Amino acid sequence: MILWLYFSASLMKNTGVVVANDAKKDRTKALVANIHRLGILNTVVCNYDGRAFPKVMSGFDRVLLDAPCSGTGVISKDQSVKTNKTEIDIFRCSHTQKELILSAIDATDANSSTGGYIVYSTCSVLVEENESVIDYALSKRHVKLVSTGLEFGNEGFTQFRGKQFHPSLALTRRFYVHSHNMDGFFVAKLKKYSNRTISHDKSRHPGGNTNYISESKDSVAGIDTSSLDEKKETQTKVSRTNKERKRKLKSADSKKLGD
């Protein structure tokens, strides 16, 4: 966080106000220390749940959401990511990211004369945490994707394994360790053009693409959890079967010993 904070303060020449929010209170101490060390004077540090931040304050010209993610883009530095994340963990991350991006959009003022922009970024290379999240935001709020201004990086996916995303997802950027000599990364820039909210029963996308098919099925988080429920049910049945087998084996062993 301190890098983008220092960069933002420099661009603003220590004028205006930057609000730096971190959900983990322990990290705010180091953040404050670094702010003093770097001579940053225009920043307020706070500790709130980002999903409820618009209730605390809103009306920002610009919002940068560096979303918590699975960290699959930094496997080269942390090999444990390969084994300590399950499919359910990924869907939970995606759920939280979708809540956070809606919160970031709601905290942004579409009528700002100098902004109305939201930047979303993760250090993940998974579609579920990147394109799926942005695609969901496009269907739930009055926002559109704009160019990131980055001249390098791969275009984001507009389709992946049978799933169709909004064509403007090509404006997002993906970065790979093997291609760009940096950590895996994803970035998207959104422009909010209205402060009105979209009804839940309508799927609305900039440009009026009538052939668009949304992959979101859950009305709250945009996650199809049916497959996860089926897997949980299967795992429970397998666990019960295994326990029953062990019980029968123990019973058989006890009878042999008694004989």
Structural class: alpha+beta
Q: What is the string of SSEs from the N terminus onward?
A: HEHEHEHEHEEEEEHEH
**Percent in strands:** 15-25%
- Overall geometry comes to globular
- Tally of contiguous helical segments: 7
Q: Give the averaged pLDDT, no decimals.
A: 82
Distance between the termini: 70 Å
What value does the Rg take, in angstroms? 23 Å
Low-confidence parts: 207-228
How many E strands?
A: 10
Describe the structure.
Helices cover 36% and strands 18% of the residues. The chain is an alpha+beta fold and 259 residues long. The strands form three sheets. Strands 3, 4, 5, 6, 9 and 10 form a six-stranded mixed β-sheet that branches. The longest helix is centred in the last third of the chain and has 33 residues. It is globular and about 80 Å long.
Describe the secondary structure blueprint for this structure.
Layout: H1 2-11, E1 18-21, H2 25-37, E2 43-46, H3 53-56, E3 62-66, H4 87-106, E4 117-122, H5 131-140, E5 141-146, E6 154-155, E7 159-160, E8 163-164, E9 173-175, H6 177-180, E10 185-197, H7 226-258
Question: Which properties best describe this structure?
Answer:
alpha+beta; six-stranded mixed sheet; two-stranded parallel ribbon; 36% helix; RNA binding; RsmB/NOL1/NOP2-like_CS; RNA-binding; signal
